[in-house]
């Protein structure tokens, strides 16, 4: 089956490549240096080899890929990125990116407004969620050098690793049976007076769980701690929280406005290619920690250059252009980008319902966003691990059109027990199945995905 789309993608590419070539020629002709000359047939052959080699991939763009956090960017992002990349502006300084620095400012304003942040904030795009979180933790350390950073046991591993890089101590807080940070455990740590910053995750990478941010902010106030929110994955769900997520979940998204810092990845749910993260700070005075002198970069403007308020130096102006263009087509509203997120949540909800009624599969827990975890109905951890893996292998085999792609997730016996499963704990941990249903097309694909996985599970546990 081929993709049925209303956009003529090749035509859009021809449009932007032509426009940029015209722009270039408006500066007058010059001869390409012989060292840069290449043979059309040779380049074409290399590109043919490239596209052949790209066969060796999973179909991240296709709804049959219901595995990890991966999907193809929207064509508008690709065309905007390509057009801008041909000129290759660097959003490090205004000198090296007058147009795309302005686009980045526009984009940041829109994202900050989505979170309910005040008009004055400090923020910028980054190359990744990892870099964005590193900056937030670095500021946390600069503000309270002797204090610790607390995050949930299910937080992204980057927080523990970056604490190590920064030379700060991190504390892992246990999660409840819904995958959310335990408030009791958090308060115990806060009572020691040693916690400087709490990292809350809205949309954990494994389970898509939303930490109880509203209460975390209250506790932080009570004990004089700061709050950083990692919404690398979940941030854009703010657009649909009030009308399409559980009221309890929506309440925590509403609390984002009070967080000291926030990270979101446009390359996860913002339809962007990789290389697109963002970090926001509520208190603009933290800009002083970024202060540095650069004898060669900042010339044409006294306005703030992104290079003066970020850890990275060079950064693709094309990334800013790609989001800017994407948000023109899919604005940050429920009807805009939100309309691509509602079906992902429905997909997870609907598959969860099917799993409750299945004779061979069951849900691990109720999905809060669009990440679903589930397992075969077996009686021991050893079998659970073996059969989960076998389901993944069998689902992914057969012809390309028959394959469906799933992921696994490792759980401990205590986590299974906490969710009411009574399995013989004959192993230290076991794999269960996990599907990130992040493409809106997943909504209509769920029954077929479920039937196929269920059929395989039935055969294996019979
Ligand atoms: C993906 C993710 C990260 C890491 O971001 P990268 O963009 O992959 O570097 C951090 N935290 C959470 C919650 C994530 O989902």
* Percent in strands: 5-15%
What is the helix content? Answer: 40-55%
- The structure class reads alpha/beta
Secondary structure tally: strands: 11
Q: Specify the CATH architecture of the largest domain.
A: 3-Layer(aba) Sandwich
Bound molecules: pyridoxal-5'-phosphate
- CATH class placement of the largest domain: Alpha Beta
* Largest sheet data: 7 strands, mixed
Kindly give the count of domains.
2
CATH topology of the largest domain: Aspartate Aminotransferase, domain 2
Quaternary status: single chain
Strand order in the sheet with the most strands: 1-7-6-5-4-2-3
The coarse overall form would be: globular
Write the element-wise H/E pattern from the N-terminal end onward.
HHHHEHEHEHEHEHHEHEHHEEHEHEH
Low-confidence stretches are none
How is this structure best summarized?
The chain contains 16 helices and eleven strands. It is of the alpha/beta class and 462 residues long. The structure holds pyridoxal-5'-phosphate.
Please provide a written account of the structure.
The chain has 462 residues and is α/β, with parallel strands linked by helices. It folds into two domains: 98-332, 3-Layer(aba) Sandwich (Aspartate Aminotransferase, domain 2), CATH 3.40.640.10; 341-461, Alpha-Beta Complex (Aspartate Aminotransferase, domain 1), CATH 3.90.1150.10. 42% of the residues lie in helices and 12% in strands. A seven-stranded mixed β-sheet has the order 1-7-6-5-4-2-3, sandwiched between helices. Strands 8-9-11-10 form a four-stranded antiparallel β-sheet. Strand 8 and strand 9 form a beta hairpin. Helix 3 packs antiparallel against helix 12, helix 4 packs across helix 12 (317-329) and helix 13 packs parallel to helix 16. It starts with 8 loop residues before the first helix and ends with a helix. The site of pyridoxal-5'-phosphate has 13 residues, from helix 5.
């Amino acid at each position: 089956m081929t993709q049925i789309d209303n956009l003529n993608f090749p035509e859009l590419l021809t449009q932007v490549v032509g426009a940029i070539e015209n722009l270039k020629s408006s500066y007058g002709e010059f001869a390409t240096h012989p060292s840069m000359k290449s043979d059309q047939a040779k380049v074409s052959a290399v590109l043919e080899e490239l596209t052949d080699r790209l066969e060796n991939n999973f179909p991240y763009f296709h709804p049959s890929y219901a595995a990890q956090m991966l999907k193809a960017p929207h064509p508008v992002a690709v065309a905007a990125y390509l057009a801008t990349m041909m000129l290759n502006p660097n959003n490090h300084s205004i000198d090296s990116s007058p147009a795309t620095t302005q686009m980045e400012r526009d984009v940041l304003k829109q994202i900050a407004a989505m979170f309910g942040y005040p008009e004055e904030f400090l923020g910028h795009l980054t190359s990744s969620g990892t870099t964005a979180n590193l900056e937030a933790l670095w500021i946390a350390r600069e503000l309270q050098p002797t204090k610790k950073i607390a995050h949930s046991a299910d937080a992204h591993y980057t927080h523990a690793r970056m604490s190590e890089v920064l030379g700060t101590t991190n504390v892992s807080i246990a999660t409840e049976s819904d995958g959310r940070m335990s408030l009791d455990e958090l308060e115990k740590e806060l009572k020691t007076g040693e916690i400087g910053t709490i990292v809350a995750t809205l949309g954990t990478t494994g389970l898509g769980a939303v930490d109880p941010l509203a209460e975390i902010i209250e506790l932080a106030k009570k004990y004089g701690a700061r709050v950083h929110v990692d919404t690398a994955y979940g941030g854009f769900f703010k657009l649909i929280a009030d009308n399409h997520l559980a009221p309890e979940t929506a309440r925590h998204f509403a609390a984002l406005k009070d967080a000291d810092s926030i990270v979101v990845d446009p390359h996860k749910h913002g339809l962007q290619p990789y290389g697109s993260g963002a970090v926001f700070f509520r208190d603009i005075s933290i800009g002083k920690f970024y202060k540095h002198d650069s004898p060669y970069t900042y010339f044409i403007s006294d306005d703030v250059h992104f290079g003066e308020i970020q850890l990275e130096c060079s950064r693709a102006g094309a990334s800013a252009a790609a989001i800017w263009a994407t948000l023109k087509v899919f604005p940050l509203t429920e009807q805009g980008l939100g309309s691509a997120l509602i079906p992902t949540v429905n997909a997870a909800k609907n598959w969860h319902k099917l799993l409750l009624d299945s004779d061979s599969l069951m849900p691990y827990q109720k999905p809060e966003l669009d990440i679903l975890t589930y397992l075969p109905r077996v009686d021991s951890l050893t079998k659970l691990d073996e059969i989960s893996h076998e389901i993944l292998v069998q689902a992914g085999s057969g012809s390309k059109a028959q394959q469906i792609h799933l992921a696994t997730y490792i759980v401990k016996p205590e986590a299974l027990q906490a969710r009411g499963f009574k399995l013989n704990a004959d192993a230290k941990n076991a794999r269960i199945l996990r599907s990130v249903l992040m493409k809106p097309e997943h909504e209509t694909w769920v029954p077929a995905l479920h039937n196929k996985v269920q059929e395989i599970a039935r055969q294996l546990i019979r």
